[in-house]
Design goal:
The structure holds 2 protein chains of 2 kinds. In chain A, helix 3 packs across helix 4. In chain A, the strands form 3 sheets. A 6-stranded mixed sheet of chain A has the order 5-6-7-3-8-9, sandwiched between helices. In chain A, strands 11-12-10-13 form a 4-stranded antiparallel sheet. The radius of gyration of chain A is 23 Å and the shape is elongated. In chain A, a hairpin with a 2-residue loop joins strand 1 and strand 2. Chain A is of the alpha/beta class. Chain B has one domain. Chain B has 13 helices and no strands. In chain B, helix 6 runs antiparallel to helix 9 and helix 10 runs parallel beside helix 13. The chains are: A alpha/beta, B mainly alpha. The interface between A and B is medium-sized, with 32 and 32 residues.
C-alpha cells in the first residue's frame, strides 16, 4: 500500500457552489501531509468526505485500500479531529476517552491505560475528572486531539490541531505529532504554514476545490537551488555579481534586507558561497539560509 | 452491524442522559409529581371516606388510614356497575381491572398519561443537539450511523426505565405510609408492573421523539415538532372516527390505540400491544434514521 488515502475527481456541490471540484489526491502511506490553501479552498470538505461525514456528489474515495469510509471496517483504523465540533459538555475527559476507546473495540483495561497515558501526554491528568464544559478552549482542543490518537490508528486527520493552544502546549503537541512519523499516516490542515513546515513531510496546495500540487516539503521549499542572504546594506552592482556564475539570478528585497540567489540545482550551495560571499562582506552579512519558507513557496506558486 | 458496538453506544448514551441537567430535572419533576399525585389521591380518598361514613352512618375506626372504605366500596356491586358504564361496556378491560385497589388504578392512569410527554421532554433533542454541536462526529467514526441510532434508542430507553422505576418506588413509599385497608405491600409489584407497561408505551414515543430528532440540527426545533406530534398523535385516533370505518385501520399507526390494551392484565393482549408499540417506535425511528443516513452529518 503506497497511498493510504486516494481520492479521484471528488466533487461536492452545495447548490450551485462546488466545494470540491475534481479533487484528486493520493496521500502517501506513513507520511505527514499538510493541506495548504485559502479559506473555502475545500480542505475541510475533503477531510469530511474522506471521514464519511459529507456525501460527495461524485468521485471515488479509497481509504486504506478498502473503499470509502465505513465504521464497521475502519473503526479504530481511522480517526479525525473535526473542525468546529464540540465534545459532549457534561462528560469528563478521562471517561470520554475510555468510552471512545471502548467503541473502537479496545478492551476495558487497555482503554483506561491508553486514556491515562494520553491525558498525561497532553498535560491534562489533573483535569481528567472535570466536566468538559469547565475546561478552557485550549484544554478542550487537547482532549479533541487526544481522542484522535486512541489506539494509534493507521490514518489520522487533524483539522487545525494547533489553533487555540498556548506556545508551550503547541510545542508539546508538535513534538507528539512528530513522534508518529513513520507509524501512522497523518493529514493536517492548517493556516499556520510555519506549523506545517515544522511537522510535514509532504505538502498539498489546494485551491478552488482542486489540488494544485502535491510534493515533498523539500521539493516545495526548494531547498536546493536557492540561498537567501540577510544583509545590512544592499549590494551596489547586482549584474556584476550575477556574472560570477552562469545561470545565477539575484534579487534584492529592500523590505526585509534580503538578497535571494537562485541557481542551477546541480550546483552545490557551498560553491556559490565561495564565490559570492567575499563580494558581499562589505554589505554586512547577517545570516544565510538555503531554500525558502513554505509561506514564500505558497505565495510564489 | 455489531451488537457489541450498539451496546457500547447505548451505555454511552445512558450515562450522558443521566448526567444531563435536563434529564435530572425531568426525573426529579416526574418523581415529585408522582409523589404529589399519590399523596393527593390518598388524601382525597380519605376525605371521601369520611364523608361516606357520615352519609351512610358507618362507623370508621378511630385513626384508621385512608383506603379501608374505598377498598370495600370498589368491590361493591353498584360501584362496579358505575365503572363498567364509564368503560363504555368494555368488559374485557373491566374484568381485568375489577377488584384492583383504586390507588393502584390511579397510579396506572397517571403513569400512562405522564410517560409520553416525559419521554418527549427527555429525548426529542438528544440526537439533534449532538448533530448540531458536532459531537456526533466523534461517534460515527467509531460506530456506524445505524449503530449510533440504535444505541441512542436503547440508552434512552434504559434511562426512561430508571426514571419510571424511581417514580414507582416513590409513589409506593407514599402509599405505604398513608394507605391502609389493603395489603399495601402487594401494591408494590402492581405499581412496578404498571410502570413497566408505561415504559413499553414510552418505547413508541421514544422512537417518535428520536426519529424527529434525526431530522434537525437544532434541539429546540426538534423539541417543538415533537410536542406538535404528541398533540396530533393523541387526537388522531379519535379524529379518525369522524371519517367512519373506512380509515379506522389508520388508528393502529398511533401509540394511543395500542395503549388501550395495556390496561388488560392477561398476557396475550399485553404482549401483543407491547410488541406493536415497540414496532411502531422502531418504524418512527427508522424514518428519522433513513433521513440521517443519507445526509451530511456536518
Amino acid at each position: 500500500m503506497n497511498e493510504a488515502i486516494v481520492t479521484r475527481n471528488l466533487v461536492k456541490r452545495y447548490g450551485r457552489h462546488r466545494a470540491l471540484d475534481g479533487f484528486t489526491l493520493g496521500v502517501p502511506a506513513y507520511s505527514i501531509t499538510g493541506l495548504v490553501g485559502r479559506n473555502g479552498a475545500g480542505k475541510t470538505t475533503w477531510m469530511m468526505s474522506v471521514a464519511g461525514f459529507v456525501m460527495p456528489t461524485s468521485g471515488e474515495i479509497s481509504l486504506l485500500s478498502s473503499g470509502p469510509f465505513d465504521a464497521s471496517r475502519h473503526s479504530g483504523r481511522f480517526a479525525i479531529l473535526p473542525q468546529d465540533s464540540e465534545l459532549p459538555l457534561t462528560a469528563c475527559p478521562r471517561e470520554l476517552l475510555v468510552r471512545y476507546a471502548r467503541l473502537q473495540g479496545i478492551a476495558p483495561g487497555a482503554a483506561a491505560r491508553e486514556a491515562d497515558s494520553l491525558l498525561e501526554t497532553f498535560n491534562l491528568s489533573d483535569k481528567a475528572a472535570r466536566p468538559v464544559r469547565s475546561l478552557s478552549h485550549g484544554m478542550r482542543k487537547r482532549v479533541m486531539v487526544a481522542q484522535a490518537f486512541l489506539g494509534s490508528p493507521d490514518v489520522i486527520m487533524l483539522d487545525e490541531p494547533l489553533s487555540g493552544l498556548d506556545p508551550v502546549e503547541a510545542d508539546r503537541m508538535r513534538a507528539f505529532i512528530r513522534s508518529y512519523r513513520g507509524r501512522s499516516t497523518i493529514v493536517i490542515s492548517s493556516h499556520q504554514l510555519d506549523d506545517i513546515q515544522k511537522l510535514c513531510t509532504h505538502v498539498a496546495f489546494v485551491d478552488a476545490g482542486k489540488v494544485e500540487r502535491i510534493d515533498t516539503l523539500s521539493s516545495i521549499t526548494s531547498q536546493s537551488g536557492r540561498v537567501v542572504y540577510s544583509l545590512r546594506r544592499g549590494p551596489s552592482d547586482l549584474p556584476s555579481l550575477e556574472s560570477l556564475m552562469p545561470g545565477l539570478r539575484l534579487s534584492w528585497n529592500a523590505g526585509d534586507s534580503s538578497l535571494t540567489a537562485e541557481f542551477d540545482s546541480a550546483v552545490a550551495p557551498e560553491d556559490l558561497n565561495a564565490k559570492l560571499l567575499p563580494r558581499l562582506l562589505d554589505c554586512g552579512v547577517v545570516s544565510i539560509a538555503s531554500g525558502r519558507t513554505l509561506e514564500q513557496a505558497y505565495l510564489d506558486r | 452491524m455489531s451488537w457489541r458496538r450498539i451496546w457500547q453506544a447505548a451505555v454511552f448514551e445512558l450515562f450522558s442522559a443521566l448526567r444531563s441537567r435536563r434529564a435530572v430535572v425531568v426525573v426529579v419533576l416526574y418523581l415529585v409529581v408522582s409523589l404529589l399525585c399519590m399523596g393527593g389521591t390518598i388524601t382525597m380518598l380519605g376525605k371521601l371516606e369520611d364523608q361516606l361514613s357520615q352519609v351512610l352512618q358507618v362507623e370508621r375506626p378511630e385513626g384508621a388510614k385512608s383506603g379501608v372504605v374505598s377498598a370495600a366500596l370498589w368491590k361493591s356491586k353498584p360501584f362496579q356497575n358505575i365503572v363498567k358504564g364509564a368503560l363504555q361496556g368494555d368488559t374485557l378491560v373491566y374484568d381485568d381491572i375489577c377488584g384492583k385497589h383504586p390507588a393502584e388504578l390511579i397510579y396506572a392512569w397517571f403513569v400512562l398519561l405522564l410517560v409520553p410527554p416525559l419521554t418527549l421532554m427527555l429525548s426529542a433533542n438528544r440526537a439533534a443537539s449532538e448533530i448540531g454541536s458536532g459531537s456526533v462526529l466523534y461517534m460515527i467514526t467509531r460506530v456506524t450511523r445505524l449503530e449510533w441510532t440504535l444505541g441512542k434508542y436503547l440508552g434512552s430507553a434504559l434511562s426512561i426505565l430508571v426514571g419510571v422505576l424511581v417514580g414507582a418506588c416513590g409513589a409506593w413509599a407514599v402509599a405505604f405510609f398513608k394507605l391502609s385497608g389493603t395489603d399495601v405491600a402487594a401494591l408494590f409489584p402492581a405499581m412496578v408492573g404498571w410502570s413497566l407497561k408505561a415504559w413499553v408505551l414510552s418505547l413508541a414515543w421514544l422512537g417518535l421523539a428520536l426519529g424527529i430528532s434525526h431530522f434537525f440540527k437544532s434541539g429546540a426545533k426538534a423539541d417543538g415538532l415533537a410536542w406538535l406530534m404528541l398533540l396530533a398523535f393523541s387526537v388522531a385516533p379519535n379524529a379518525l372516527k369522524l371519517f367512519g370505518g373506512r380509515f379506522a385501520f389508520l388508528s393502529f399507526l398511533f401509540p394511543a390505540t395500542a395503549e388501550h390494551s395495556l390496561w388488560r392484565t392477561s398476557f396475550a393482549p399485553v404482549a401483543a400491544s407491547s410488541a406493536w408499540l415497540v414496532m411502531l417506535g422502531l418504524c418512527y425511528l427508522s424514518a428519522g434514521y433513513a433521513f440521517f443516513a443519507g445526509r451530511d452529518a456536518r
